Each structure stands twice: as C-alpha cells, then as structure tokens.
Amino acid sequence: MTNQLAVPAASALLSTAEAPKHEAFTGQMYIDGKWIESSDGQRFERRSPAHGHVVSSFPEATPADVEGAIQAAEKAYRHGPWPKLKGVERARVLLAVAQGIKARVEKMALLESLETGKPLTQARGEVSGCVDLWEYAASLARTTSGDAYDTLGEDMLGIVLRQPVGVVGLITPWNFPIWILSQKLPFALAAGCTCIVKPSELTSSTTVMLMEILEEAGVPAGVVNVVTGKGPSVGQPLAEHPAIDMLSFTGSTRVGSMLGGLASKNLKKVALELGGKNPQIVFPDCDWHAMIDAVVFGVYFNAGECCNSGSRVIVHESIAERFAEAVVERARQVPVGDPLHPDSKIGAIVSENQLNDILGNIEKGVAAGARLRLGGKRYDANGLYLEPTIITDATPAMSIARDEIFGPVLVVIPFSDAAQAIDIANDTAYGLSAAVWSRDIDTCLTVARGVDAGTVWVNTFLDGYPELPFGGFKSSGVGRELGKQAVEDYTETKTIQLHIGERKNWWLPRTAA
After folding, report:
1. Are residues 218 and 289 in the same domain?
2. How far apart are CA 225 and CA 28, in angstroms?
3. 51, 158, 217, 260: least CB-packed within 10 angstroms?
4. CA distance 352 to 354
5. Measured distance CA(235)–CA(250) in Å, rounded
6. Whole-model pTM?
7. 3-class DSSP state of 295
8. Closest CA relative to residue 171, chosen from 253, 227, 242
9. Is 463 inside any structural domain?
10. 477-478 and 269-273 strand pairing
11. Which pLDDT belongs to residue 16?
C-alpha cells in the first residue's frame, strides 16, 4: 500500500504478561430437553483470534440432527404447554432466565471475549445488558393484546387476536452472539412460539450456556433447541423446512438475501437484520468534543465488527480538514490489544478471512484515490489485530464509501449543504442507522426525516433501549426487533366475527314462506 504522504502510526499493541489460563469449553447440542452429540459423532473447535489456543468445541450437526430439533419444536408447539400458558406464567420463566444470566456474567463474558476477540470489558457489558432485554420481553408477555370492535352494528362484535406464529428458526451471527440472540429469543418465547437456534460456528459458547439457564428456569422440553454447526448443513435447512413457520436471521445482506429467497418458497414469515453503511453527518455548529468522541467510539467499538458501526462520516467541507486532524489524533490514542487486558478498547479481528477482507477494502479505497490518514496495516504480532484506520478525501461513488467493511475503518466524505449530505447518506443500498450533529434543531429534524434509516441518533451515537424498535430500510433488513413490535413480529393476527341474535336469511325459497 502506498501513499504520497506519510501515515501516522497507530497506538502500540497492548499485551498481557502471559497467555490466559483457560480450560476449553466443551459444549453439546440441546434438542427436546436433552444434551446430545451429533448423530455422526463429529465435532469442531474454535480457536481464540487473539491467542490462537482452542477456546471451545461443539458437535457438528447433521441434517438428521436439524430434523430432530425441528420435530421437537413442532411437537412442543402443537401439543406442549408453552403456547397455552398464561402470559404471567411465561413472564415468570423469562424473568428467571434474566436472573440466571445475571449470575453468570463473568463466565459468559470471558468465553465471548475469547471467541470473538472483543475486549473483556465490552463482553461483560454485552452479557449484563442482556438481562434488561429478557426483563423487558417478560413485560410484553403480559401486555401484548389484540383489539375489539363494538362499532359494527348491534348484531356483530369483532375481535382481533394475536396468536404465536408457531415454530421459529433463529440464526445468529458471531459479532454479538448473546446480545443478538437476546433480541430475538425472549420475544419469540413471550409470544408463545417454540424455537430452533443456530449460533455462528465461531461463537457458540454463550448460546449453549444460555440453554443451561433456560433449562434451570423451567422452559419445557422442545420449546428451545440448539443445533451447532455451519450454515449449509444447519441454517439452510431451517430456511427451507416447511415445518418452520418463521425465520429470523441476523448477518450479512448477501446471506440474508439468500436465506430469504429459500424461505419464500414455503411462504414462511421472515425477519432479517442485515448490513449497514451508517453515516454520521457533521455540521460546523456541532458540540465538537462530544462529536469527535462519538465518531471514534462509533467506528471502533467492537473493532467495527458491528452492523451499526458509524463507518462513514459526512462532514461539512468548511471543517473537513480540522475534523480529519482531530479524529486522527483521537484515534491514535485508542488502546488496541489483548482483549483480556483491562485497558484494551479494540481487540482482535474475529478471523483471518475477515481481516484479509478488511485489508482488501482499504487497498481498493486507496487505489481509487482516497487518502489513508491513519493505520491501514496489520499489527506485527501474534493474533489477528488491525490498526485503527482513517481514510479521507473519499467520494460517494467509491466502493469504500458505499460497501460495508465490518472492521475498524472510518471513511470521511465532505458535503456542502444539508440537501447534499442527505443525498450522500442515502446513496447506498443500506439504511440501518445514522446520526446528525448540530445545535440547530431545524437542521437535525430535516436530516433525521430525510435520511433513509431505521434509527437516527441526534447529537449522540449507538445508544439503545429495549423499548425502542430496531431494524433497517432497504437492504438493511425486514422487520423490527425490540420495542413492543418485537413480540408482534412473532405473532399472526386472527379476526373473529361474533354474530348476535337471529341471522337474516340470504335467500328464502317461496315454498318456505
């Protein structure tokens, strides 16, 4: 990689004094209330991207194992107690799960940190934050309701019910494994559904540990089943199987589109939370220090391996160079290194393939004429570490400004006025999230209304609450997670029309008069 100007060095890599002492986690699949191995006895291992040692191992599910999990979930839905329980009874179980997670935060966070490469401090926050998701879902188990219509005349009463959609396949990614599962599973359970969960083969530990918690909390056999393995042998059958009533997937737009196509053959309901190329739009009158901090946090949190990553900054041309210098200076100070080091803010990239993809995108951007201002290189050390990277002088047409990179890479694009900023923000296939930075409320509302995004932050970034729905426009997905809409997504509406009194005849033969 070459540049006309020298590129400042990123921060030195933090390391711990010695390799972590950790006994590998040996997980099993959970099907119909039983812990089992795969039907052919095959297993796979996961190595830490930061340290290289084996962290965990799991059964490699076969199609027969997936079929068994689907049959168990279907039996539990058609004949088991879960869909028929009172909302308060389902809520009590979900609250017990929340308490079980709270009691296991440290163990789950350590495994998540080792499997993903994210800093332990961030993994701890992710796991502990799941408690709130399960508690909120419990409240919806008691409050989700339909409608009644007493306005249809004196001889008719209309009732609209919400019933569980049925058997749901949940496919979760590697970047926030327990968090994203907790954006799906408790809400499906609150609605009365039964589920089959397929975690990423890179990060299965916390999902399997969660099944231990569900078992202790009293979830009946077959209501939640976990099958571990790769997408073609596990995820694809969930999308294709006629007994699956709904598929909920979080991951790349490419894979989501493929799975959605497979699911459409059986006309099953689909919820897709996919990629993003999320802009932060910066005006000259913003709170400068708050904005710089949020930009650095937004792109480097979780090493940029986040669908909500603030990977584009669309900055007013009058402050573009000042912004570039300030964000480079701040980013150079961000601690990178061993995820178990207490000061690390950016850990390891999840896999060699992912690291190479990120480097390839950086190369492509520089070759197209963008300017590398910071980083852009792999650290010369053991482990999969990448320097925090900043690229300026990008144009909206460049692939680096349009395509999701999923790494610690910030791309800076100048604009001249609000209308152009909105046009640039919308000129991608994605529409997941965005932010606007200005002290002028008119500017903020104009941008918030104009940007195609499921979430728009105003003078902040990456805040989240269980009460607020999350999802995307365009190629960023279909459906919404969180909020009251989350449970509603796992239901079907049923209309019941009740006739009162004598029904008028449609036609009465003359002989019957």
Report:
1. no
2. 11
3. 158
4. 5
5. 12
6. 0.94
7. helix
8. 227
9. no
10. antiparallel
11. 63
- Rounded distance between C-alpha atoms, residue 489 and residue 491, angstroms: 6
SS (H, E, C) 182-236: HCCHHHHHHHCCEEEEECCCCCCHHHHHHHHHHHHHCCCCCCEEECCCCHHHHHH
26 pairs with which residues across the strands? 57
Residues of the chain with pLDDT under 70: 1-6, 9, 16-21, 512-513
Structure tokens at 505: 């005849």
CB count in 10 Å sphere of residue 220: 16
Q: Structural domain tally of the chain?
A: 2
Q: Quick check: is 273 catalytic?
A: yes
Query: Hey, what are 154's tokens?
Result: 């004196």
Does one domain contain both 231 and 281?
no
pLDDT one-digit tens code per residue, 35-77 = 999 999 999 999 999 999 999 999 999 999 999 999 999 999 9
Token duo for residue 2: 């070459």
Which tokens hold the place of 460? 């902040």
DSSP notation for 86-153: -HHHHHHHHHHHHHHHHHTHHHHHHHHHHHH---HHHHHHHHHHHHHHHHHHHHHHHH---EEE--S-
CA distance 462 to 298: 7
Q: What is the DSSP letter of 470?
A: B
Q: Would you give the DSSP letter of residue 349?
A: -
Cα–Cα dist 331/10, whole Å = 8
- Per annotation, catalytic residue among 135, 201, 273, 404: 273
Q: Do residue 368 and residue 490 come from a single domain?
A: no
Shared domain for 252 and 298, answered yes or no, is no
As given in the structure block, the two tokens for residue 263 are 């699911």
SS3 content of the chain, % helix, strand, coil (to 5): 40, 20, 40
Task: Let me know whether 387 and 427 are in one domain.
Answer: yes
Beta bridge partners of 499: 156
Q: How far apart are CA 297 and CA 147, in angstroms?
A: 43
**CA-based Rg of the chain, rounded to a whole angstrom?**
25
Q: What's the distance, CA 473 to chain centroid? A: 15
Residue 450, CA atoms < 13 Å, CB-side half-sphere: 19
Instruction: Judge if 52 and 159 occupy the same domain.
Output: yes
Q: Is the dihedral of CA 34, 268, 432, 392 positive or negative?
A: positive
Structure-block tokens of residue 28: 């099993």
Locate 226 and state its tokens: 């976990």
Which one-letter amino acid corresponds to residue 336?
A: V
- Supply the pLDDT for residue 14: 84
Of 441, 373, 461, nearest in space to 409 by CA: 373
- Cα separation, 270 vs 187, in Å, equals 15
Assigned token pair, 358:
């990120």
Containing structural domain, residue 287: 276-458
DSSP per residue, 473-484: EETTEES-BSHH
The phi and psi torsions of 371 (rounded to 5 degrees) equal -105, 125
Q: Do 296 and 392 fall within a single domain?
A: yes
